[in-house]
Each structure stands twice: as structure tokens, then as C-alpha cells.
Amino acid sequence: MLDGDSSSVEYPDLHRMVFNLPAIDNHAHPILKDAHRDAFAFEGLVSEAQGAALTGDSVRTIASMRATKELSKLYGLDVHTTWEELKEHRNGLPYSDLTGICFERAKLQALLLDDGLSGVEDLVESYRTHDPFTTSPTKRIARIEVVAEALMEKILTPHLGTDTLDVAPILSKFHDSLYYALEAEAQNPDVVAFKSVVCYRTGLDISTFISQASLKFSILEIFKKYQSGENIRLCYKALNDMVVQVALEVAASHDIPVQFHTGLGDNDLTLLLSSPSRMQAIIKAYPNTKFVLLHASYPYTREAGYLVATYLNVFLDFGSVFPMVSQRGQEAVLRQVFELCPTNKIMWSSDGHWRPESFYLGSIQARRVLYKVLGEMISDGDITEIQAVKIVKDALFENANRLYGLGLACALE
């Protein structure tokens, strides 16, 4: 499919909107600094796998083969270029040129970045450094577990070396400190959302009631590990659920959304606990908080669609499957999104991270699939081309602009 010229396509107005609208990327991460451009395996561009499963198996997926072909075209290489040849060519390109062409072709008006990446802060660019890549300023998404872990470390450090720990005042101090820290984040004009990775830590079946005994036990266990030299990590369900509850309360009071990692992830995630259907109780308990389900909740997209359709305060991001899933899979995901989701509650993201190519592939693949799936719906008589154009504008721009209170003017009408 030609991505630029609309003159010879079946639905020219739809084509023009899909491939020319500068989009709001409602969930992404920073890119690596030039000095650290090779800090992580390049195969992470197309897979969430780890170790040998990443470097050995991921390049044999259809998604990887497709990405190789698309990046070869971007770099001006032969269509038969191999993955290894692609990497070798890429390594010889100036990083500024590589970044420039990827973001230019991605056509992004604004980036919303989750920059709460523990342990790699020195490897990545600051969120403000991304401003030249878009026509509107970059905004931040505050990751609540990172805020909570920093506070827990500060609170527990003075007690290192002691044999006993009076948990009750520590729990109270942690709760109050977290509340005020998240209040400060919410009041920061650059912060437009919170994000939780509780899905990775203890799963999405977030409790609406947490016993004090469970909370105290969680703190004692974290303290024991900290005493033995381990880093602070929230990995006990009671404490993780409390952190989420505090964030939901603060977010509601400031009318900012809370994004949740759902579905697709690496092997640190328990797949059975990553379905958004497990969040139904917490969604009901916080009707004034806006929940954003990230990554199309793949492979639980239909469950996500049910929640979005039946709860006013739930929204769906359909990123990350681009480029992690094959094109046929992406089309199936988008069809499932449209089965039930109100089109004013869906938003695109690249889930771009580390490499500028992730933003390019996330954008161009999503646009191609949008055009194909919506074109089929027009052909089937489900919608008109005018309605399809509106759906694209909402999904790529208007819904995120409204939900996050960005106040941006659309650059294409």
C-alpha cells in the first residue's frame, strides 16, 4: 500500500487522515542516549522475550521478518536484507540521522512519556530532550511504583542494622508520604497521568480491602531483603494494592487518568494475572478515577473491550501490538477493539522505547492496519467513509487530547 499518495486509493479521505494526521502518542518511553545506543539487544524492538529466547527465537517470528523488511526500506536497503545485515547497517548510521528520519516518518504531534525506569536513568534521554521530535511539548507519565519504592527506601534506611522494626508507624508514614508525593506529581503541569505496573508485580486482581496485618507483613519482608543487601522492590500483594489505591484516590481528586500495564509483557509477568477482567472490582470501587488499559490488553482484547463498553471510567490504548504482533494478528486485535469499544474511548500509542525505530514501526504499522480494517468496514456497509475519518481522528488525536487535558489544536482537518 502506498502510504503517501491518496489519489489512487479506494477511500482517499480516509487514506489522507490515516497517513497524514500528526498523532498523540499516549504511552511511550525515552530513547537511549547516543553513547548507550547498544545498551540493550536490538531484538527487543520486536519482542518482550528475555535472554536466549530474545536473541535466538524472536528474529524468527513473522513480526520480526516484517520489521526487517520495513526497516530495510526505511534505510534504503534491499528488500532481501537479513536481520544481521540490518543491524550492521544501522550501527554505521549517525544516531542523530537515525533518530531524525524515524520520528519524521512517524508523524507525531506529542509524546506522553513514562520515564520511571529504575536502574537505567543514566542510559536514556530526559523527557524534555524529546521535544525536537514533535511539534508540541513532551509530557510525563509518573510511574507510581517507582515513586513508592524511593519513599520506602528513604523510610527504611535509618533502621538498617536494627534487630527489630516497629512496623505500625512506618506503615503510616509510608502511606502519608506516598499520598503527598503523588499529590506533588499530579500538580506538576508536565505530568498528565499516573501509570502502574502492578500487573508485573502481583497481578491485576487488585483488592478493594487490605488488612493491616498483611500490610505489616509486607513491610517486614521488604525490610528483611533490604537488610540482606537487596534493592527495595514492591513485590507483596497487600502493599502493591495499597499503592494503587492511593494513586487512584489522588488521580480522581486531580482528574488525571491512571494507566495500567495489561496483557502483553515479558517473562516477569504472570500471564493469567494480566487480564483486565481481574480489575472489575477495583474499577467499580473507584468510579471517579479514569482507568486506561494499555497495550490492547493483548491477548485479552475482548475482555478489555467489555470493560470499556460497560464502564464510563475505562479507556483502551491499542499500542504495543505494533510491531510485536504479526500484521494478521494486529488486524485481528483492531477488529476485536471495534467489536464493542465506543470509538471515543480508544487511543493509539507506539509504546516506543530505547530505539527511535520503535516509534516509527509503532506508528506506520498502526496506520496501515487502521486503513485496512476501517476500509473493510466501509465496504461491508457498517460505516461510511466520513465516519471512518472521524474514528481515525479520534483514535490518533482527539481522544487522548481530551482525556489528558492537553489542549492541543489538530494539525490536519
From TrEMBL:
Alphabetical list of InterPro entries matching this protein: Amidohydro-rel, Metal_Hydrolase
Gene Ontology molecular functions: hydrolase activity
Highest rank taxon of the organism: Eukaryota
Keywords of this entry: Hydrolase
Organism: Coprinellus micaceus (Glistening ink-cap mushroom)
Start and end residues of each Amidohydrolase-related domain: 247-406
KW Iron (keyword) present: no
PANTHER family named among the record's database cross-references: AMIDOHYDROLASE 2 FAMILY PROTEIN, NODULIN 6
Protein name per its UniProtKB record: Amidohydrolase 2
